[in-house]
Amino acid sequence: MSWITKTFSSSIGRKLIMAVTGLFLCSFLVVHLLINLQMLRHDGGASFNFWAEFMGTNPVIRFMEIVLMLGLLAHIYQGLALAVKNKKARGGQAYVVNHSEQNSQWASRNMALLGTLLLIFLIVHLMNFWIRSRFDAMGGLAEVRVPNLDHPVGDLYSVAAASFKIPWYVALYALSQIALGYHLWHGFRSGFQTLGLNHRKYTPAIYLTGYGFSVIVSALFAVIPLVMFFSEAYQPRPATGNTVEQSLTTEPALR
Amino acid sequence: MAGSNPNAKPMNLTLKVWRQRNRNTAGSIVDYQVKDISPDMSFLEMLDVLNEDLLRQGEEPVAFDHDCREGICGSCNLFINGRAHGPEAGTTTCQLHMRKFSDGDTITIEPWRSAAFPVNKDLSVDRSAFDRIIQAGGYISINTGGTPDANEIPIPKDIADRAFEAATCIACGACVASCKNSSAMLFVSAKVSQLALLPQGHVERKTRVENMVAQMDKEGFGACSNIGSCAAECPVGISLENIAIMNREYINAKATSNNLA
């Protein structure tokens, strides 16, 4: 085994993979959230569809999408592998009485559980949105026109607006954000600690930023489907299955 | 008894103690009653009373580790009512006093649990894994010969204090016992950062962290996930900052040492 594989298969090396990929996924969440928030504009999804088109066509983003997928897979694999390894290290006999709640936070002790819940959500989520927007064979998207672009774009907004009218899906989405919030609550600061970025001057700020990040990001992600579920203002265009030539700025969203 | 509280009433307690004959047999919790326990007794003295009772009844006494009984040797290691070294913060088992409990309490006493700390007997576990980690790199090279002058190597007070804080680790293993992952990183990082902070430790700086981490993994300890139970339960207050220092030392050593293996 070379020194590189040895490094990344050591306990610290594995944690480094978790930290680097985890913090990278945090940066992705910010971009995803900013684009999702475009759906709440009362423009029939024009802004959202514009940015969805950008994310689907920009070469830098498309490259980063591959990096993101590899990072996500590494995070999932390493997280599960560590959970199994750490469980084994605990030994066969569990404590009869263990008051770990008195020495640590619940989220910190349950990262593997929270991550598994997020993985289940992600599978449903990717099948619903990402696969449909990237692969025509998987259903594809109707096309609409948006301002500032001379070609029609996929109407991902209607997929979202329709999905967010389904009660079980909205419930799953919103509840999953609770898991996301708890996962980030521990994960954000934990990533910095693993990278060795612990300093008495900056660590309090890192903790505070992490707690704020986890609450704000998960709350905003959860609010979007809830608003779109309860408000009449957000409706999908009727599925026509072919190109819908319309300017979204001049016409209100079809009811 | 000098210095004892005259108002302190003796206590009767129910003990739920882990009994296990040896490494190869299964253990179980056994209930015992202890009577007339003085609140001024230490926890270990209370167990001494239990053992005297057991001996009188012709039963096998409960095996547990102890040595100095003043909180500096790191021998005592009991998981009491679901907490390493019991409910009081910053305290070893031997420094835990019965005044922290009440008459009629039920106290569950278990050994440290970790795959790397096999149970020898009852409450005594084998912590030689820690010794092997120290042997892998927890040392410095110095010249033998005449006694060197004190303060020959200037060390800033701030650095000396931080190194000393890390050096206060008594290797009791509470960090491993309380960690969900059974990780030994607080223990290992205390030694790594203590020696990395001091100029005397710089000769083996890179090989030390590489070898100690490798030995830690080999012993079967888990990987740290920054839960923080270890630092919360540590009787001498070793901080999580040491783990971050060890991570930095490890990254630096792996990236720049001449060790290709």
TrEMBL record, chain A:
SUPFAM superfamilies: Fumarate reductase respiratory complex transmembrane subunits. The keyword Transmembrane helix applies. The keyword Nucleotidyltransferase does not apply. Keywords: Membrane, Transmembrane, Transmembrane helix. GO terms for cellular component: membrane. CDD domains: SQR_TypeB_2_TM. The chain crosses the membrane at residues 16-40, 60-84, 111-131, 166-185, 206-230. This is Succinate dehydrogenase cytochrome b subunit. It comes from Hymenobacter wooponensis.
